[in-house]
Q: What sequence folds into this?
């Protein structure tokens, strides 16, 4: 069958890469695939937000399965539109996608479902938000309620920083309409980890644990980004903690949505802070994480297409188990100069073949072909992924791949998976 992947970034490249391994798949198509991804996915000639064109292509080309990568098309209702014409799709409808599209609404659902989360308040008036932070202890977290490409979160260490964040979001319009409403949360202390579950109705099974690195610089310094690297598994979320988190943060949300008549067929991502009092939800996403997907999918053993078809059909996942490679996987993101605010574009990338010869898989997050060259075309440019028997060996292999690649102004962290390495004693 034909498979359509909506999206053309690093996450979608990893989705297409894994899907291409299935004997059930005859061809893969995508919306605006980047260089690298275009070697396995045919461009359908429209953007991820062109819902009408996507539906027309899927219907007329007899697409057997659609996998939605990014959040914006989900919030726009692309899954609903596809289901209306009988196309199987992995991705929740617009009603459920509000979990990510509106952090304010997500907090309401968490409160109703009894999900543990940070203390919070929501504001649509700037003066009220400024007054509120003046009465709170710092650090404090200021979030744009709407979609902001993973960059709409500011951890304000001082009152001046929280006031500046509020002004930027609500007055200066840094994130457009997404910042017209802000959620202000208490700052939680602990270790952050990503829990992603594949859901069909109220049944769900977890994917392998992973940990993202949001800050631009080593040691978690610098501005927030969409993610500078990830690794899997994350030791902080062991099997017992995983089971507990599924029970406390995934199941209650699915059941609350179902009680409201809202189904969920797709990936539910819970960003967790593992505190001394147990896991607390920082946010929900309604799709696979990016760059977590680039570290998780290489560890998935077997053909995942039959599982995705069951989800698209609404089949219960009760009793299903997933098999994972025991090896660790590490993805290091290479970003353009100027990222995350004003990334450079059009710089020629060298060394991709050399990175592959180091045993790495290079997922293209923001690249474009210019003649016979591959050039930078986005903020996050590449995700260099490697795996090995230990986190340390996977890290070393990934950075050998990174060091083989060069482009003007490139930025990357040197400490991806540092928390896992701290937990693992060195081998004699």
A:
């Amino acid at each position: 069958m034909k498979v359509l992947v909506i999206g053309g970034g690093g996450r979608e490249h990893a989705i297409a890469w894994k899907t291409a391994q299935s004997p059930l798949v005859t061809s893969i198509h995508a919306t605006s695939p980047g260089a690298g991804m275009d070697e396995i996915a045919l461009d359908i000639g429209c953007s991820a937000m062109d819902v009408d064109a996507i539906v027309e292509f899927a219907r007329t080309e007899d697409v057997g399965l659609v996998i939605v990568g990014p959040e914006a098309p989900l919030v726009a209702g692309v899954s609903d539109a596809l289901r209306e014409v009988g196309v199987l799709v992995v991705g929740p409808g617009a009603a459920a996608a509000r979990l990510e599209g509106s952090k304010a609404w997500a907090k309401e659902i968490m409160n109703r479902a009894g999900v543990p989360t940070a203390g919070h308040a929501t504001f649509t008036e700037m003066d009220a938000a400024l007054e509120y932070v003046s009465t709170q202890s710092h650090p404090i977290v200021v979030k744009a309620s709407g979609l902001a490409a993973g960059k709409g979160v500011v951890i304000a260490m001082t009152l001046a920083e929280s006031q500046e964040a509020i002004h930027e979001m609500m007055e200066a319009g840094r994130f457009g309409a997404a910042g017209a409403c802000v959620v202000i949360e208490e700052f939680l202390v602990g270790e952050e980890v990503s829990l992603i579950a594949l859901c069909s109705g109220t049944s769900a099974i977890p994917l392998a644990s992973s940990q993202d690195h949001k800050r631009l610089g080593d040691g978690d310094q610098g501005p927030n980004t969409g993610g500078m690297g990830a690794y899997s598994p994350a030791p902080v979320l062991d099997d017992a903690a995983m089971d507990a988190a599924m029970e406390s943060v995934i199941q209650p949300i699915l059941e609350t949505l179902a009680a409201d008549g809202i189904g969920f067929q797709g990936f539910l991502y819970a960003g967790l802070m593992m505190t001394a009092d147990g896991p607390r939800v920082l946010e929900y996403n309604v799709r696979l994480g990016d760059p977590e997907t680039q570290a998780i999918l290489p560890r998935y053993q077997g053909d995942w297409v039959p599982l995705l078809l069951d989800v698209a059909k609404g089949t219960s996942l009760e009793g299903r188990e997933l098999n994972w490679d025991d090896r660790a996987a590490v993805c290091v993101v290479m970003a353009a100069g100027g990222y995350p605010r004003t990334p450079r574009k059009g710089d020629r990338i060298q060394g991709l073949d050399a990175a592959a010869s180091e045993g790495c898989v290079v997922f293209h997050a923001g690249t474009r072909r210019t003649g016979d060259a591959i050039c930078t075309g986005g903020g996050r440019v590449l995700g260099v992924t490697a795996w090995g028997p230990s986190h340390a060996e996977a890290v070393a292999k990934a950075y050998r791949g990174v060091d083989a690649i060069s482009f003007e102004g490139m930025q990357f962290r040197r400490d991806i998976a540092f928390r896992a390495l701290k937990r693992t004693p060195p081998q004699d």
Remarks:
- The radius of gyration is 21 Å.
- The mean pLDDT is 96.
